[in-house]
Amino acid sequence: MSTYLRRVYSSFTSHIIDIPPRLLALLLFLLLLAFPVTGPTINILLMLTAANVYAIFGASWDLLVGRCGQMSLGHALFFGIGAYSTAMLTLYLQWPMWVTIPISILIGVLLAVAVGFPSIRVRGPYLALVTMALPLIATGVVLFFKDVTKGETGLSGLPSFFSFLPYQQGFIAEYYLTLLLLLASGIILYRIANSHTGLVFVSILDDEVSSRASGINTTKYKLMAFVISAAFASMVGAVYAHIINYAGMGFLSLTMSFLPVIMTIWGGIGTIYGPIAAAYILQILEGYVLEEVVEISAHWKMLIYMVIIIVLIIKWPRGMARYVTDELEDFEKARDLDERGPKIWKKYKKKERK
Predict the structure, then answer these.
(1) Which CATH class is domain 19-34+42-332?
(2) pLDDT grade, residue 326 (50/70/90)?
């Protein structure tokens, strides 16, 4: 038992404690984990729950664009498909959420294959224009089949995840659900980005022609990035639809497509953790600072909000989160695992003697 604990502690020390950016991420996660204990209002809980959802949405876009270089401006397509799929399956077929959400992810993946295969054959601004048209086409489909989709009204009355809990506790439970989803999604996306597959993505980003000349099937890997990104976007779209009990055309809007772009560019493109950090800051800025701290009209709020974002992007062109991690890396002190191991072993020996 002591040997196992020694290995766990050694691994935790070398992979978390000795790496300041990861230590900061752990402390921030623990802070978010303990936040409901402070007794926040329902509006703040909803704001942070939305931040959890948008963080996954932004990180999924970052994997596609920041790591693989496939400029997509229509990521809202998968967010909306996930929401509409689970809404229609729940309302019309009366299927439970634990069935409709996985099916929604599968539908998003199949749609990514269907639209991704022809889309990735174009490059640069042409790819951006093609992908930007996809949510507009989906919006037209929603309006055409308004008897099923309810058109501009949208599908309402979706069941909540924790409707059996009291009102306040239900919001807290949804907050924890999205926070745990963010933790799992962030780890998975980060591991993919830093795996062998992630290295292939980066090689395509740097020079696709050279990657193809090296024997890499670039079409396969670009489609893989498209599918992985779409799966996470569809998942959070479906989850968010049940949180707000509604699925509407706003899920497919251009605003929703540009949201991950703003978060990723400001947070740090190609980092995965950048859009996650930016999602919280932007949500707090819009939903708390400009809403409750500084009381201004909605007309001026959007203008001030965009000006602040532009100024911050100019100040940190490589991304706010990347700037912070670069600063923290200066405090990193590398230690040899072999050197650290005996010290930890001595500590456990002292405890056993006591």
Answers:
(1) mainly alpha
(2) confident
